[in-house]
Amino acid sequence: MELRYNNEVSIAVGEIRLKGILSIPEHCLGIIVFSHGSGSSRLSKRNQFVAESLQKRGFGTLLFDLLTPEEDLYYLNRFEIDMLHERLIAATKWLQKHPSARDLGIAYFGASTGAASALMAAAKLPEVFAVVSRGGRPDLAMDALADIKVPCLFIVGSLDSEVLSLNQKAFDKLFCEKHLEVVEGASHLFEEEGKLQQVAELASNWFKNHIPALVV
Question: What's the pLDDT score for residue 215?
């Protein structure tokens, strides 16, 4: 899928700027915003793999850093879900005004702790059309789960037993359309052969099945 827009971007959030990569294919179906997990960034090889897979299927992607390099030096900032989800909301509103992204639907792909930020942001932004969590920590957004109206897919590896248990507890708190997919033989990072490809396919299918009619 040829990209009609593929550039590094700088997203203003208050007095700081967050670096990102915005990629939009021709005949774009919608844009998937990535919410990275603890210690990860727009340069995450795993998220870049998923992003490229989504682009081949007709989706645009925005990978961006939720923290500045200086902020990331302070480890606890990675778990400041309240701050991180507000930045995700700010990035979403920035994207909605971007000339290359106007009128395109927006969804979230959250990994690890980033899934909590994505879920909290989705609870406040009804225009987001779907959320996918990969090896996520939705339990860190427990108070927001009942307010989520958008379809949510939780993807967890069968070998990631602790996170799977946390996902099952959070899953029960959701009242929206939802599905919990357990990928057999996968660990937390889905490093086993073919498992990340499975994640990309599951995510793509979920997003395609929930694109609002007005943006198809």
Answer: 42
Query: pTM for the complete prediction?
Result: 0.94
Cβ-count burial 148-174 (b if 16+ within 10 Å, e if not): bebbbbbbbbebbeebbebbeebbebb
* Alpha helices (H) in 16-153, listed in sequence order: 45-56, 69-72, 81-97, 113-124
Q: Return d(Cα 178, Cα 156) in angstroms, integer.
A: 14
Tell me the C-alpha to C-alpha distance, in Å, between residue 5 and each of 23, 62, 155, 203, 216.
Answer: 5, 11, 29, 22, 19
Tell me the two tokens of residue 28: 């774009």
Residue with tokens 């379809």: 151
Query: What parts of the chain have a pLDDT lower than 50?
Result: 214-216
In 10 A of CB 18, how many CB atoms?
A: 20
Confidence at residue 40, expressed as pLDDT on a 0 to 100 scale: 62
Query: Six-digit token pair at 178?
Result: 């939802």
pLDDT for the residue 214:
45
CA–CA distance, 25 with 198 (Å, rounded to integer):
22
Instruction: Please choose, from the candidates 84, 83, 102, the residue with its C-alpha nearest in 3D space to the C-alpha of residue 22.
Output: 102
Q: For tokens 């929930």, what's the residue?
A: 210
Identity of the amino acid at 200? A
